[in-house]
Amino acid sequence: MTIEQVIAQTQGHLSKADTELIERAYAFAAKAHRGQKRITGEPYIEHPLQTAFILAQMGLDAKTIAAGLLHDVPEDSKYTLSDIKKNFGEDIAFLVDSVTKLNLIEYHGRTRYRESLKKMFLAMAKDVRVIFIKFADRLHNLRTLEYLPEDKRQKIANETMDIYVPIAGLLGIWHLKWQMEDLCFKYLHPTEYQELVQKYEVEKKLELNQYIEQMATTLSQVLTQLNIEHKITGRFKHLYSIWEKMHDKNRKFDEIYDVFALRVIVPDVDNCYRTLGAIHSLWRPNINRFKDYIALPKPNEYQSLHTTVFGPGGKATEFQIRTPEMHEQAQYGIAAHWSYKEYGSKRPTPKVGWIQEILNAQKNSPDTQTFIQQLRLDIFSDRLFVLSPKGDVYELPVGATPIDFAYAVHTDVGNKAKGVLINNKISRLDEPLHNNDLVEIIIDKQQTGPDPAWLKFVKTTKAKNAIRQYLKPSALNRFAALANPKHWWPRHHNPNQPPEKNKNLE
Ligand code: MN
Fold this sequence. Notes:
Bound molecules: manganese (II) ion
Helix content: 40-55%
Strand content: 5-15%
Largest sheet: 6 strands, mixed
CATH architecture of the largest domain: Orthogonal Bundle
Mean pLDDT: 81
Distance between the termini: 50 Å
């Protein structure tokens, strides 16, 4: 990576002064890191350059890109923050300092991740550009994760999934969220990742490409006849989201059909609706899947028309229709508000309502507990957080029960769960949990396994699988046998079914 490539990425949108600032920041960083090497063996400056490149790709302003180049200077060189202030002014020094301080967040697993989240949000409140730099920094580190020892990889990947990914989603920076998820997936579930790469990237995409091309060509011809300027691209869903789907719904890869969407970019809103009309006259729409996010934008300002039609062979095909501005917003979320393309050096505050709400909530609630409570209402509306007696935080889907919690703690805790105290009160095992509940599972050490009736109310895949696993025929026999010793028969009565080891009770 060179500084010329970083500047080229901004596609001439920067003023002469902006370009000079970036070049000056590069020269300073290069001097500061001279002689240092990354673990990859490359000169250290490659990392700040890559970070700056990602920021330029996001369309961020010159100060953010300059701060990206300088972000590791105070921590990793002989130059200090005051040197940066002297050379580049208050603003850039503030950004660099904030990123350095965020580096000090030590991740100790879920227990203390509220604290890390809070720090992220505090930084964001002061200037959200700090978060963009931190994200770019993290993204590049993830890309070079393979050079780190295994334990560090796991730690960084877990931390990214717990802290960075939800925030990127909250801010609508999908482009970063997807990349981070896929990179972490690779290290957190290497076997499944490789399998999916083969099945999806190699086999399925090849087959689908033809189909996508066929539909795109048909549509393009019609739009040309209608004099609608357009750009059509096929977008494949990212690996992690497909894997999540397979996991959540317990489906096989072949049963997941909505793995791609066609994106049509047209000059203005008017043409979005005309394009929609053209698509619907070509293929029959599935009316249940139609969404007008132009008239009704999502809370994070996402806008587009979504429609799913029955394409050739009856294959469900999703179209997303949007203007270039909407596209920018969709890729980069609130980062688009800091774009040099639209605003030059004048930077408006984002009008995103919910960010303002979060920031207000933060001002009014000095303690972490209350802050996070208010915060998660907004971000994590489909998830809930409960506490173990030791103070560990567990994240569960809404509607989860004490049994889901028990299996989240440990399979053995689930299998031997007998009762539960919710906030110190005896409760039922199927009682839905609420945010911030303190959950204590009462264990019966004599209990041999889960109650099949639990399957009716558990919400998490983990609990379901663990219970089913235990109740597999061979185990079921033993279960019945233990419950009624008279019915015990020797396990080897069927030579075709060798005795099965129960993985859950190791
Ligand atoms: Mn860094």
